[in-house]
Amino acid sequence: RVFTLLIDQNRRQLETAATVLAADFAFREAIATQDRPTMRSVIRNHGLRIGAQVMMVISPEGQLIAETQPEFREPRRFPFPDLLSAAVSEGKSNGFREMADGTLHQFVLVPILAPKLIAWVAMGFLVDDPWARGLSEMTGLAVSVIRRGGAEPHVLASSFDASRRGALADALRQFPQEIPPALSIGGEHYQTVQLPLGQGASAVLQRSIEQAQAPFQTLQRV
After folding, report:
1. Residue 102 in 3-state DSSP?
2. Which pLDDT value is given to residue 222?
3. Which residues contact 83 (CB under 8 A, 6 or more apart)?
4. Could you give the percent of the chain with pLDDT greater than 90?
5. Global pTM?
6. Cβ proximity of 152 and 173 under 8 Å
7. Residues 6 or more apart in contact with residue 201 via CB below 8 angstroms
8. Strand order across the 64-67 sheet
9. Measuring CA to CA, which residue among 75, 33, 38, 37 is closest to residue 58?
10. Strand, helix or coil at 194?
11. Is-contact 83 105, C-beta < 8 A?
């Protein structure tokens, strides 16, 4: 429950940061006049300030107007039409989505109004090891993010060190469908809960059973 609340808190903070950008007068003016160099400069600077790795400006029709990713010669559409459809229906949207390079990001979409809708701004924040470690410190749990692609699960991010992260990947190969509530990793047993994040990605929350039992075993020996 704490993990879910923290994810929702992150989402609200990201939406606030996106809303601040969407309300910027110079930014809205650059969109209205199709000043692409100014748009790219503004989203790049704003992304650096708030730690967003992906920034995109999307037309009401779903075309990318500006982005911080490597530029494409051909115009292209926003790569997550489901998020855009949800934003159109609900006024804003959010979700975890995988980029073309295989990295997972937490995205938020908010409208840019002047006063009518002139564009959408999308911000993506990388789900990586520091992201997992931060949530681990706040929940007291080991936090990993996995993606199941084919037969081999892939660990996208983890609060574990390198050796235990590799042991987690090995353990997950034994359970291609569903992770059991008790999982053995490197000779240690972990109580395990899996939570879906979307598009085949899941958060795996774990606590060492041996560590949880240690205080009681000490009492038994007294």
Report:
1. coil
2. 60
3. 93, 94, 95, 97, 107, 109, 122
4. 44
5. 0.85
6. yes
7. 96, 98, 104, 127, 145, 146, 147, 156
8. 64-67, 54-58, 117-126, 104-113, 93-98
9. 75
10. strand
11. no
